[in-house]
Amino acid sequence: MDKDGKYLKRGVDYPIIQGKRTLPGKYYHDEKIYQQELEKIYYKFWIYACRAEEIPSSGDFKLIQVGDESIILVRDKSMKINALFNVCRHRGTQLCTEPKGNFSSKSILCPYHAWAYELDGKLLGAPLMKEENGFHKDNFTLHKAHVHEWEGFLFISLATTPEPFEVQMEALMGKFSEWNMAELRIAHHIRYELNCNWKLILQNYQECYHCPGVHPLLSQLTPFQSAQHDSSKGAVIGGFMELTKERGSMTMDGEAAAPPVYDVSGDDLQRVYYYSVFPNMLLTPHPDFVMYHHITPLGTGKIVNDCYWLFHPEIINDKQAQKGIISAVEFWDLTNKQDWTVCEQMQTGTKSMRFDRGYYSGREDILYALDQELLKALGHDNPEEDGE
Amino acid sequence: MDKDGKYLKRGVDYPIIQGKRTLPGKYYHDEKIYQQELEKIYYKFWIYACRAEEIPSSGDFKLIQVGDESIILVRDKSMKINALFNVCRHRGTQLCTEPKGNFSSKSILCPYHAWAYELDGKLLGAPLMKEENGFHKDNFTLHKAHVHEWEGFLFISLATTPEPFEVQMEALMGKFSEWNMAELRIAHHIRYELNCNWKLILQNYQECYHCPGVHPLLSQLTPFQSAQHDSSKGAVIGGFMELTKERGSMTMDGEAAAPPVYDVSGDDLQRVYYYSVFPNMLLTPHPDFVMYHHITPLGTGKIVNDCYWLFHPEIINDKQAQKGIISAVEFWDLTNKQDWTVCEQMQTGTKSMRFDRGYYSGREDILYALDQELLKALGHDNPEEDGE
Amino acid sequence: MDKDGKYLKRGVDYPIIQGKRTLPGKYYHDEKIYQQELEKIYYKFWIYACRAEEIPSSGDFKLIQVGDESIILVRDKSMKINALFNVCRHRGTQLCTEPKGNFSSKSILCPYHAWAYELDGKLLGAPLMKEENGFHKDNFTLHKAHVHEWEGFLFISLATTPEPFEVQMEALMGKFSEWNMAELRIAHHIRYELNCNWKLILQNYQECYHCPGVHPLLSQLTPFQSAQHDSSKGAVIGGFMELTKERGSMTMDGEAAAPPVYDVSGDDLQRVYYYSVFPNMLLTPHPDFVMYHHITPLGTGKIVNDCYWLFHPEIINDKQAQKGIISAVEFWDLTNKQDWTVCEQMQTGTKSMRFDRGYYSGREDILYALDQELLKALGHDNPEEDGE
Question: Which CATH number is correct for C8-31+175-378, 2.10.109.10, 2.40.50.1070, 1.10.150.20, 3.90.380.10?
Answer without folding.
Answer: 3.90.380.10
